[in-house]
Specification:
The chain is about 70% helix and about 0% strand. By secondary structure, the protein is mainly α. It folds into 2 domains: about 80 residues, Orthogonal Bundle (Rna Polymerase Sigma Factor, Chain: A), CATH 1.10.1740; about 90 residues, Winged helix-like DNA-binding domain superfamily/Winged helix DNA-binding domain (Arc Repressor Mutant, subunit A, Orthogonal Bundle). It has a two-stranded antiparallel ribbon. Strand 1 and strand 2 form a beta hairpin. It is elongated and about 65 Å long. The C terminus is likely disordered.
């Protein structure tokens, strides 16, 4: 690979800097760790630049490196942010190969979609890093099953089953948050009622 080609690829990588940083931020849930992981990702990408085919999917190439570095760190320490490491190869997903895992249109799904993208992104941080990763790749970055399979180095069946579980976990988190909001709102209404009561505050 010539010097000109290398410079062109470097520029191609740089265009995805923000996307890589956002991924790292979701994975680490820490600004400092995200910056560190982003730097390591680009350093590794330049180290293995000869393995990248120009004008293909640079973002997927960088995401694969970022997730690989992160998972290796988690694996070596066996814990990250109080979440125990669990091998990404535990579930082979064979039972759902070929099954359409699109969420069924129902009242719950309509409620989930009523939350804004910003709210959903914040709730993602409450999920395990496994679920965060698969949701980011599939539902935010919109990679295909095949691309996610290559990025995470897992079978397509595993991608499908894990994505289904991650979406269900996110739905549970949304409903949990809604219950908290409703309780807080209910409490506020009670306080206002008591304050305006002819009997005064008890």
């Amino acid at each position: 690979m010539g010097k000109k080609d290398r410079e062109s690829i470097k520029q191609e990588f740089v265009r995805h800097l923000k996307d890589v940083y956002n991924l790292c931020l979701y994975l680490t849930r820490s600004d400092l760790e995200a910056e560190d992981l982003t730097q390591d990702t680009f350093a590794r990408a330049l180290e293995y630049i000869d393995s990248y085919t120009p004008n293909t999917n640079a973002k997927a190439f960088l995401f694969k490196i970022a997730t690989s570095i992160f998972y290796n760190r988690v694996n070596s320490s066996n814990t990250h942010n109080n979440i125990e490491y669990r091998s990404f190869m535990e579930d082979d997903g064979s039972e759902v190969i070929g099954r359409d895992l699109t969420l069924v249109e129902d009242e719950e799904d309509r409620f989930v979609r009523s939350f804004t993208s910003a709210q959903i992104r914040r709730l993602l941080l409450n999920l395990s890093f496994e679920h965060r990763t698969i949701l980011i790749l599939a539902d935010i970055e919109e990679f295909s099953y095949e691309e996610i399979s290559r990025i995470l180095n897992i079978p397509i069946g595993t991608v499908m089953s894990r994505l289904n579980r991650a979406r269900n976990a996110l739905k549970k988190e949304i409903f949990r948050m809604n219950e908290i909001i409703e309780k807080e709102s209910s409490g506020a209404n009670i306080i206002r009622f008591k304050g305006n009561s002819k009997y005064g505050n008890d």
